[in-house]
Amino acid sequence: MKKLLMASAATALMAGAANAEDVKLGILLGFTGPLESISPNMASGAKLAIDQINESGNFLDGQTIVAVDGDTGCTDANLAVQSAERLITSDGVKGIVGGMCSGETGAVLQNAAIPNGVVMISPSATSPALSTVEDNGLFFRTSPSDARQGQVMADILNERGISEVAVTYTNNDYGKGLADAFEESFVQSGGTVTLNSAHEDGKADYSAEVGALASAGGEVLVVVGYIDQGGAGILNASLDSGAFDTFMYPDGMVSETLEANFASATEGSFGQHPNAAGDGADQFSEMSKAAGFDSTSTFAAESYDAAALILLAMQAAGSTDPSAYKDKVMDVANAPGEEILPGDLGKALQILKDGGEIDYVGAAAVELIGNGETAGSYREIEMKDGEMVTIGYR
Fold this sequence. Notes:
The chain is of the alpha/beta class. It has helices spanning about 1-20, 40-55, 75-90, 100-115, 145-160, 175-190, 205-215, 230-240, 255-260, 280-290, 300-315, 320-325, 330-335, 345-355; strands spanning about 25-30, 65-70, 95-100, 120, 140, 165-170, 190-200, 220-225, 245-250, 270-275, 340, 360, 380-385, 385-394. Strand 9 (about 245-250), helix 9 (about 255-260) and strand 10 form a beta-alpha-beta unit.
């Protein structure tokens, strides 16, 4: 009996030692809230990168990465900070893929990540205000700033010969930041914004907001909103009243839900979201199909890249300590070095272990500029014959 107890104790000790070798990575996304339909594919993208690195066996002398999910509610700063604090203090994550939406990302950065010295790489927080935040070198993003998306939107409208639009935006950092960036670019190019007004999420009726927009006029209604919340309400009110029948959809609106619920009703409407073309995107598409998720889903590719960059930076530093590996993120993301595409993560780990250099291109053509964000490219979509189709990249 004594020998049995000693054996059991030894087994438990060995299991504890094995678990201690696990490196935990937080996946902090809006699993509930106004973008909950997008989050599962984003999480799948991040976890695909983790799985590939684990399968290679090359990460920090064979250590295993474990993903730990946290919910931000997308627009719930209190929930986001609480989830981040749990990930950091209770779960012991060494880095965070997230946040998801701009406002809660800023709150998490200031109230959880910076005080605890934890690296965050957001795949989807796009507010221009995040470009200049004092982050102690801890914050990066694989999605481009909405200052860039605003210019892309203006270019698309100009090429379509549309000179007058109305704009409605969700009343938060993301919505106002993108709406203002778009208006500045569109007006500078000669366009007219008849009305640029906020809407609140969670309302049952958006007829008053749509009425004001219709009175102002415009060939197209630009809906800077969330497809699982007020954005859908704006579309329904517009279609029910006949106020608008053509819409422009920025990234927060582009999802399978948009296609399923509004593609047929908004024929000819169009939009864009961060996404890349090329060999990296093609390889990611094949791998995502095998893994059972959609590679073109908004921010799925950027989520794969965010997870990959954190883990490759750890490998380059030879440490999971954020204070050590934060300075390696820009190094592994940019030239010089061997270009790394999706599926090459095991090879990248070996190159770094051998003292070599890599240039991570990834699924979304990552190239981090001075403030730790990517210049980015965009997939342009249009509603045709009841489906959401890709018509090009910018």
